[in-house]
Amino acid sequence: MIRLPLRIASLLAVAPLAAAQLPAEVLVRQGDPTPGLPGATVEQIGLITVNSAGGFACAVGSDNAGSKGKHIVGTAGGGAPVGLLRSEQLGIQGYDQHFALASSGALRIGIDDLGQVAYGCTIGLAGSGTPGTESIWLDGTLVASEWAGSTNVAGASITRDGRAVWVGNNKLYIGSASTVLFDPSSLGGLQFSFDKISRYWEVAPSGAHYIVGLGSSPNLYFPRYLVVDGVLATAGGQPIEISKPVPAAAGGSAGETWNQIEEVAISNSGSWAFSGSIKDASGALLTVVVVDGAIRHRQGDPLGGGLLGSPQQGMRPYISLDDQGVLAMVAAIDLGFANTVTTLFYDDIVVTNLGDSVDLDGDGFAETTTGVASLHLNERGPAIGADRSLYVHALVDDNGTVFGADDEQCALRAPIPPIPYGHGKTSSVGLEPKISYSGTPRLATHDFAVRVDDLVPNKPGQLFYGAARNAAPFVGGTLLVSMPLVRMPPVHANAQGQVTISVAIAATMPGTVRRYQFWQRDPLHPDGTQACLSNALEVSFFP
Asked: How many domains does one find in the chain?
């Protein structure tokens, strides 16, 4: 990891992390040495992306004795240290970190599973001062350029098997300029005069699914329609179209209309999502997050210890979906009394909050006078790593004066905490057993335990786990864990209907994920199965 020595801490401490929460870790920080470039210092950070091999890539700007450069740093995976993946200093005027082409939506890079990087940049004669030409590159190979006759070239992302993905000439390309993934002219019957691809588009890491916004405003910034895998996206059986009603079947209320689409996401499973706003009958704007055509969250919903904030409270939700379609997002949470906190979520569980302490030196423990000062500056959803962490662009402070002028840009990696999911089976005493945890699922601490409450008092039971989520009928309830099952030693609930089971973490467990569920004997259960079940807990293990 690349780090600066800690500065002298002030006496002002920031809010501590929630109990049993692993701290977010700073990977690359403003002021650090630029990896692989002796004498260069990181000045700017943005554009974070991940692959499925445990690697990540991050675009940085740096200064080397007054010579400016644009680079991509990161690691292909496998625990390798952060290094230089790509450097473009000669003849390259800059990565697309601003909207050089309003209709094409750059602001992205990509890394495949071998560590190759795809990116958009502006190329021109070094030192000429002449505006450059937009182009798409895969490592050192030119993939597409306006010089080749295309227009509105921008991008680029990349599939896990190394195919660059970009927009050019109002088409979505994959792999080569002869392979068109989507062409808006293939859609018939649209009732608008513009059908340009907006800046909001995403392709799943496998390349099998895509979501594209079609803009109709002069600057093509915000979409009017969404297209998923070549078909207009619908909600509640109706095409999603700005200014048209939000159907009740999609979670809309009387008089509500779609107002703005601001972020889009799609997964390898084909699930899709967008965030933005709707307008209610009075004309007020309300924040919404829509998943697979239904409103998942709307402004005012309980979330993260508060309520999902309004568009006027600082930010829209920035969203991503993992391979199975689980939602990750950064959102503003209203805590009341004019207090709003920016929060990073995975599956609606808090991963880290504004003000939480962070790990600066990579030892897995947070320094007490550090703090997250801002989350997600590069206007893209959090990147969901194969290492069960979320990667975001953030501001941090390392001397106890969070929200001060000395905050530093960084690439932040935040481990996903244990995630409860599903529902248990109500027992003969009328309670639904609920699973939770204590400690941290970390090899270095060895203090992790699974707890189950609201059981039948003084009855035996057994904790079991599997490798994946499930939803199959089982003893009158739902088996939430995939086969084959691994059963742990039987235990008895105490007189309060509670058990706590320590989980030993072996050296082989970091990097793996288990899903736990509890079965209990319930002789008086009215359905005759003599059994009840808890909900489930998804646990990612860390070094």
From this structure: 3
